[in-house]
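tl;dr need the bound structure. longer version: we got a ligand (adenosine monophosphate) that a collaborator sent over and nobodys looked at where it sits. i said id run it. heres the input, straight from their email, havent touched it
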Amino acid sequence: MMHRVVFLGPPGAGKGTQAAQIARDLKVPHLSTGDLLRTAVAARTPLGLEAEGYMRAGGLVPDALVLKILHERLELPDARVGYLLDGFPRNLAQAEALGTFAEIDRVISLDVSPDLLVRRLSERRVCSKCQSVYNLSTKPPKSDGKCDLDGTPLVQRPDDRAEAVTNRLKVYAEQTAPLLDYYEKRHLLRSVDASGTPDEVAARVRRALA
Ligand code: AMP
């Protein structure tokens, strides 16, 4: 199995859900720049305060901020055995920068049709405390509107509202999709059909990592 993996895919493709499961299999940390940024926003750190406006609008946070937060995380000892990057890189400049401080064994592209993406994003709800992710139709919480793990009310991410979703899909098409070519040329890319249940998709991802 590969141990230094990148998950690419549009918002709503299931990167976070898959990354959490596959990182457990591989016994490597799941590093999501979106989660790291949301934690910084919630903690009101200077970096979080700077990132918040970009995130709320569905745009990309400036490369320098994201690179700093990711680079620092990769220096922690648990990332020595490998890592699964979720939501990074998001553009060519980030991919180039990543190449200067980390190795990549494989890039998994999660492919989903645009209408399924929009549906998944509009139905996503997250725990405001532990960030666990639910879906109103495919993975509802056991008790209405509350996190299964800690009972905290579930909320919609501000950037899952329709106005921001359109922008995020546009940013993906313009800035992130070119990375498919970039990694294909480097013979690192495997595309996976990401429709279906999380278990079905995970089985395909495992095959692509074998
Ligand atoms: P995600 O949880 O991956 O959907 O990310 C949520 C938001 O965080 C994105 O819409 C961006 O505003 C920001 N973000 C996450 N990762 C990156 C990145 N690699 N580069 C720039 N912005 C990012």
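gonna send this back to them w/ a short note. The chain has a mean pLDDT of 95.
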